[in-house]
Amino acid sequence: MDKMASGWINGFLGVLIFAGSLPATRVAVADFDPVFLTLARAAIAGLVALGLLLAFRQKRPEGRDVLPLLVVALSVVIGFPLLTALALQHVTSAHSIVFIGLLPLATALFGVLRGGERPRPAFWLFSCLGSGLVAGFAARQGFAAAPVGDLLMLAAIIVCGLGYAEGAALSRRLGGWQVICWALLLSLPVTAGLALATRPASLMLVGAPAWLGLAYVSLFSMLIGFVFWYRGLVQGGIAAVGQLQLLQPFFGLALAGLLLGETVSWQMLAVSAAVAACVAGAKRFSR
């Protein structure tokens, strides 16, 4: 019971940190190219990860761990940040945050495929209900207006769900913070080199908000959030703790409204409230 409670606490802290990712990305892409932003955030986090691995003298992963680490690197280090940064050129962060409601279902599905978990049928009912509410809202409110942005967000959710489940399964052997650090380090030669190649012609034109956005997504979204998130998924279960992501729209919408001045409609709040209500049901039947 203590381990389960710890898993939910760590998962909640991870979700709370991740909630700031899309608003911070929205601010950063105002002055940074999305491709550069994706590479730079991964490179900065990779350098910090290198320092942590050296400082704590972590043992190198075994050969069997390389492929899963590559999957984590391609999904959550590069894939999700790039796809969301591209999407945010077409949709607002408030609109994109609603898509996060689909992430628990994607994580649970990959948790079954990659983590060997078997939630009860009622769990899938609550998970699908929450995800269906989000998908219905997106189709009704914004798909016709920005189909490119919505499709990019859907692709980002699929990729991210795979990375969460793969990383959580690997964390059982390597540890939570070690997995994200090794994935960042594995991709560092590529991300650092390409970040230098795609850097802006003049950094003098980049405003302070964009720098703050880059700092947040590099340190918190790319590294610190995963320390809590992977630990929570391992302790509480991938499918179960993954449902906490249904709460992320609450925090993200609040940040988008407070910090960016974006319009948060009552429909967005209603959908967020409805999918959050599904967390309790999914949690109850997760095992």
UniProtKB/TrEMBL annotation:
Entry GO terms, CC: membrane
Which key words are in the record? Membrane, Transmembrane, Transmembrane helix
Membrane topology recorded in Swiss-Prot or TrEMBL: Multi-pass membrane protein
Q: What SUPFAM superfamilies does the record point to? A: Multidrug resistance efflux transporter EmrE (SSF103481)
Q: What's one Pfam family the UniProt record gives for this protein?
A: EamA
Is Cytoplasm given among the entry's keywords? no
Q: Where is the EamA domain?
A: 7-130, 149-275
Places the protein is found? Membrane
- InterPro entries recorded for this chain? AA-Vitamin_Transporters, EamA_dom, EmrE-like
Please tell me where this protein is predominantly located: membrane
Q: Where are the transmembrane segments?
A: 36-55, 67-88, 94-113, 122-139, 145-165, 177-198, 210-230, 237-258, 264-282
- Record bears the keyword Transmembrane: yes
Q: Which family does it belong to?
A: Belongs to the EamA transporter family.
Q: What is this protein called?
A: Transporter
Source organism? Bosea vaviloviae
At the highest ranks, the source species' classification is: Bacteria, Pseudomonadati, Pseudomonadota, Alphaproteobacteria, Hyphomicrobiales
